[in-house]
Write a structure and sequence with these properties.
There is one protein chain. This protein is α+β, with helices and mostly antiparallel strands. It has helices at about 5-25, 75-85, 110-145, 150-185, and strands at about 40-45, 50, 55-60, 65-70, 95, 100. The chain folds into 2 domains: about 5-25 and about 105-185, Ribosome-recycling factor (Topoisomerase I, Chain A, domain 4), CATH 1.10.132; about 35-100, 2-Layer Sandwich (Gyrase A, domain 2). The protein is built from 4 helices and 6 strands, in the order H-E-E-E-E-H-E-E-H-H. A hairpin with a 2-residue loop joins strand 5 and strand 6 (about 100). Helix 1 (about 5-25) packs parallel to helix 4 (about 150-185) and helix 3 packs antiparallel against helix 4 (about 150-185). The N and C termini lie far apart (about 50 Å). This is Ribosome-recycling factor. It comes from Hydrogenophaga intermedia. Keywords: Coiled coil, Cytoplasm, Protein biosynthesis. Responsible for the release of ribosomes from messenger RNA at the termination of protein biosynthesis. May increase the efficiency of translation by recycling ribosomes from one round of translation to another.
């Protein structure tokens, strides 16, 4: 494995960390409705627990309401119960075959709690990126120890990996700031 391979591998893994962070951010509620909020809800479907998206169609009815259309007639009550019992604090209401899930307005206190959650997620993403930097630097040191690379190459690669790390951490900070702005917008 060469230094270029180590750097490319580290960059790929750091990018994956950022994508995972973006995915976790979609689950944090803002003032607007987002079907991704219901990704964590699981419904009892003939004895097995399935994600809500596998038993119903999720749509946005308006900026503050998610529509849930079950694929089977008898699933409406189970879906409604699963949403109500989730820790999301949502109160679904049935209208015939459609279940409306209105997003309650968030209090200032709840918004502040959510910004703390976002900052915590961001910090976890930064830690993952820094761990990848450490792993990459250790792999380069091993190459130098095995006489497959020079110390100058090691120094250059460490600077390169640090620049990559700084760029990724800046991206995480930008995502955190953007999400905080979304949350605090009334």
């Amino acid at each position: 494995m060469s230094i270029a391979d180590i750097r490319k591998n580290a960059e790929h893994k750091m990018q994956q960390s950022i994508e995972a962070f973006k995915t976790s951010l979609t689950r944090v509620r803002t003032g607007r409705a987002n079907p991704a909020l219901l990704d964590t809800v699981h419904v009892d479907y003939y004895g097995s627990m399935l994600p809500l998206s596998q038993v119903a169609n999720l749509t946005l009815l308006d900026a503050r309401t998610i529509g849930v259309a079950p694929w089977e007639k008898g699933m409406g009550a189970k879906i409604e119960k699963a949403i109500r019992e989730s820790d999301l604090g949502l109160n679904p209401a049935s209208q015939g075959d459609l279940i409306r899930v209105p997003m309650p307005p968030m209090t200032e206190e709840r918004r502040r709690e959510l910004t703390k959650v976002v900052k915590g997620e961001g910090e976890a993403a930064k830690i993952a990126i820094r761990n990848l930097r450490r792993d990459a630097n250790e792999a380069v040191k091993k190459l130098v120890k095995d006489k497959e690379a020079s110390e100058d190459d090691e120094r250059r690669s460490q600077e390169d990996i640090q620049k990559l790390t700084d760029r990724m951490i800046t991206e995480v900070d930008r995502l955190v700031a953007s999400k905080e702005q979304d949350i605090m917008a009334v």
